[in-house]
């Protein structure tokens, strides 16, 4: 039986215990998923999760084959920069992004005052992740995260994400019927659950962090994520400049990092290079 430490959630105060927690046995196909769910439901309450939250959250969970296919087929990050920009519609994101910046000028100014992050990289992320909120995914979020927690490839990592998702359900910031991207990413800038717990911000002041319906929440949370990864107000964010390291924290693929910097720079009116 595997042992894991859910350090991130312990740090947030969600888990009430600090010893290593026994993880249910992972699997590489759907055959063991139902058993895994029952084992997880037994373990979760002893880790600080209210049993009623567990029951509600798992009421409609199923093994998600679309999630597994997506997890095994991430090929776009192997493209060249120019190929990646064409595939992701980089020119359109830049054009629309400039309009988004002018149409939401007060929001972006407020975010920059608070977090030190200018509009460009936030809009680049927003545009590349969901087309400015136009498509946030159609997979059942809790099923996607539970499937990857069960799957042996990255079981420990996504078990931590599953506990974070349960925390969001408990506090009313994630619906048990919510739908999003194939790996359980949530909302307009596609945060994994644990990043919502760590960096989610109530940007519109309504008392909740709604990454789906509130662009203010999504964009402020994204700025808070970048600040949490070392963003320094006033420093540059192109490759080789101080804030590029914070962009690297957003996505591990170098081509994606360069695209954020280039698109953001074009929106902010900077001199950028695609090389």
UniProtKB/TrEMBL annotation:
Keywords: Glycosyltransferase, Signal, Transferase. It comes from the Bacteria. It is an enzyme of class 2 (transferase). Its EC number is 2.4.-.-. GO terms for molecular function: glycosyltransferase activity. Residues 33-237 form the Transglycosylase SLT domain. CDD domains: Slt35-like. InterPro entries: Lysozyme-like_dom_sf, MltB-like, SLT_2. PANTHER family: LYTIC MUREIN TRANSGLYCOSYLASE, MEMBRANE-BOUND LYTIC MUREIN TRANSGLYCOSYLASE B. This is Lytic murein transglycosylase. It comes from Neorhizobium phenanthreniclasticum. The lineage of its organism: Bacteria, Pseudomonadati, Pseudomonadota, Alphaproteobacteria, Hyphomicrobiales.
């Amino acid at each position: 039986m595997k042992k894991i430490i859910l350090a991130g959630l312990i740090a947030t105060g969600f888990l009430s215990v600090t010893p290593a927690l026994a993880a249910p046995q992972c699997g590489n196909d759907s055959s063991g998923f139902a058993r895994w769910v029952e084992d997880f439901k037994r373990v979760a309450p002893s880790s600080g999760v209210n049993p009623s939250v567990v029951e509600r959250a798992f009421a409609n969970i199923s093994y998600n084959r679309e999630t597994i296919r997506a997890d095994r087929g991430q090929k776009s990050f192997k493209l060249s920069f120019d190929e990646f920009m064409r595939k992701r519609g980089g020119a359109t994101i830049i054009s629309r992004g400039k309009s988004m910046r002018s149409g939401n000028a007060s929001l972006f100014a407020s975010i920059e005052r608070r977090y030190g992050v200018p509009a460009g990289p936030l809009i680049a992320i927003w545009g590349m992740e969901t087309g400015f909120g136009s498509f946030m995914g159609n997979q059942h979020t809790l099923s996607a995260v539970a499937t990857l927690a069960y799957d042996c490839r990255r079981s420990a990592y996504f078990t931590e994400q599953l506990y974070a998702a349960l925390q969001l359900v408990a506090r009313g910031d994630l619906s048990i019927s919510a739908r999003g991207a194939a790996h359980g990413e949530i909302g307009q800038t596609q945060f994994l659950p644990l990043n919502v717990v760590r960096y989610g911000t109530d940007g519109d002041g309504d008392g909740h962090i709604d990454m789906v319906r509130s662009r203010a929440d999504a964009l402020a949370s994204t700025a808070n994520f970048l600040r949490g990864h070392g963003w320094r107000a006033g420093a540059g964010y192109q490759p080789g400049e101080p804030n590029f390291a914070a962009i690297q924290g957003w996505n591990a693929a170098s081509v994606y990092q360069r695209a954020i910097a280039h698109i953001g720079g074009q929106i902010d009116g900077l001199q950028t290079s695609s090389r």
